[in-house]
């Protein structure tokens, strides 16, 4: 256990959230004495966040539970510019209506993790478009641009890695770090926000904000970053065979979300329990001692606890029950992801490769043929051997459902409407 004085910093250290902190001892002492306000920014590039944002969301949740006030900063303004961090190409620019729609959808995610309101520790959600869109360009450059060294900005990972790979970086994107630094200054002025948190790729941007506040307002503010989360095999956290692991149920079903966590690599179970659940550290240590088939129980606990936070208790229990029916009892799980097909399609015969493409189990016929030749495709739990097979009405059960599977862990129901 760490020796930090503040409950929040100690908790973050013990659960392995911390990568870097500015003025670590000063921030720890401040948070031990006082309630502070801290923020993390999220751009509105899609109508859902994915698990790559979950470490930051959990940090805000822990912050609030430790008696501090979290701010969720929605990047309505910075989304119009695009964050170059970790990207080889410029983000697609969205119009105002798309940004607004995305922001409203993302807010629903945070309402599951945080308590919003007017109380001293209640979370705030603000949009940096409130101040960024009203800035006067020449005045802004004269007042704040002189505090940024281009030489130093070129050394930050978000820029340097893009240039090292000889990928283009537009002047628009280059401005992103200046705007993020200004966000921190503005939040300090408006809400007395003293701490910005984020992923390790945001360190340079956060430092810019800390230094800007010191130079312009003579204020001491702080930064804290989390390590890049990778799997035991070295892969970037948050991707699966079927794509991004979204947090919105309309993007990814609670069952698929649960199954993603159930499939965690053995070496990641303890780390993920610390980062993504609220299970006590003592209990996590016990679960880490499990080996062999017993480790699957720890994975089920991980999956259920993470799903409970994101989708609620009922959805989590339903997903666990569905998984048990499929993998332990060999039954049909009604909560599996599904697509609609017409009775006419089955009456005429639906090519199995076409059905698998519709179900997004494969991306091409070639991929489907390889899957079938390797024995990895199933129709109603029976191995498919013929890539030219047609699914017919007799393959549907009494409820008009056909089950397609890719491997042992990906399943989709075709529902006749």
Description:
It is built from 19 helices and 15 strands. The protein has three domains: 220 residues, Rossmann fold (3-Layer(aba) Sandwich); 88 residues, Tyrosyl-Transfer RNA Synthetase (Orthogonal Bundle); 79 residues, RNA-binding S4 domain (Structural Genomics Hypothetical 15.5 Kd Protein In mrcA-pckA Intergenic Region, Chain A), CATH 3.10.290.10. A six-stranded mixed beta sheet has the order 1-6-5-2-3-4, sandwiched between helices. Strands 9-15-14-11-12 form a five-stranded mixed beta sheet. The chain is globular. It starts with 6 loop residues before the first helix and ends with a strand. Helix 12 packs antiparallel against helix 15, helix 13 runs parallel beside helix 15 and helix 15 packs antiparallel against helix 16. The chain is α/β, with parallel strands linked by helices and 417 residues long.
């Amino acid at each position: 256990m760490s020796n930090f004085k503040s409950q929040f910093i100690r908790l973050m250290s013990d659960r392995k959230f911390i990568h870097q902190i500015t003025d670590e001892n000063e921030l720890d002492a401040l948070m031990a004495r006082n309630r502070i306000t801290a923020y993390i920014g999220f751009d509105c590039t899609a109508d859902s966040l994915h698990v790559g944002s979950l470490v930051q969301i959990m940090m805000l949740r822990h912050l609030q539970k430790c008696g501090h006030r979290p701010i969720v900063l929605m990047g309505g303004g910075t989304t119009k510019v695009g964050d170059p961090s970790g990207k080889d190409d410029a983000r697609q620019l969205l119009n105002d209506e798309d940004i607004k729609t995305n922001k409203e959808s993302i807010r629903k995610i945070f309402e599951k993790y945080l308590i919003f309101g007017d109380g001293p520790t209640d979370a705030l959600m603000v949009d940096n478009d409130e101040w960024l869109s009203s800035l006067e360009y020449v005045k802004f450059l004269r007042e704040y641009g002189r505090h940024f060294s281009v030489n130093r900005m070129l050394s930050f990972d978000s820029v340097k890695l893009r240039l090292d790979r000889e990928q283009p970086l537009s002047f628009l994107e280059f401005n992103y770090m200046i705007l993020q630094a200004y966000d921190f200054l503005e939040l300090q002025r408006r809400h007395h926000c003293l701490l910005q948190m984020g992923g390790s790729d945001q360190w340079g941007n956060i430092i810019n904000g800390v230094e800007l506040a010191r130079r312009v307002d003579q204020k001491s503010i702080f930064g804290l970053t989390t390590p890049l989360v990778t799997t035991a095999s070295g892969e970037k956290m948050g991707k699966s065979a079927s794509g991004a692991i979204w947090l919105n149920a309309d993007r990814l079903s609670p069952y698929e979300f649960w199954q993603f966590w159930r499939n965690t690599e053995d070496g990641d179970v303890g780390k993920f329990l610390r980062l993504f659940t609220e299970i006590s550290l003592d209990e996590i240590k016990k679960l880490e001692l499990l080996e062999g088939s017993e480790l699957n129980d720890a994975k089920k606990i991980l999956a259920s606890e993470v799903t409970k936070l994101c989708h609620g208790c009922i959805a989590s229990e339903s997903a666990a029950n569905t998984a048990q029916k499929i993998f332990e009892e060999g039954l049909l799980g009604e909560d599996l992801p599904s697509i609609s097909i017409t009775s006419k399609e089955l009456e005429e015969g639906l090519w199995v490769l076409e059905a698998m493409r519709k179900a997004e189990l494969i991306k091409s016929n070639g991929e489907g043929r390889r899957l079938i030749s390797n024995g990895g495709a199933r129709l109603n739990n029976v191995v498919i051997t013929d890539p030219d097979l047609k699914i017919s009405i007799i393959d549907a059960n009494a409820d008009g459902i056909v089950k397609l599977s890719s491997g042992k862990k990906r399943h989709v129901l075709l529902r006749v409407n």
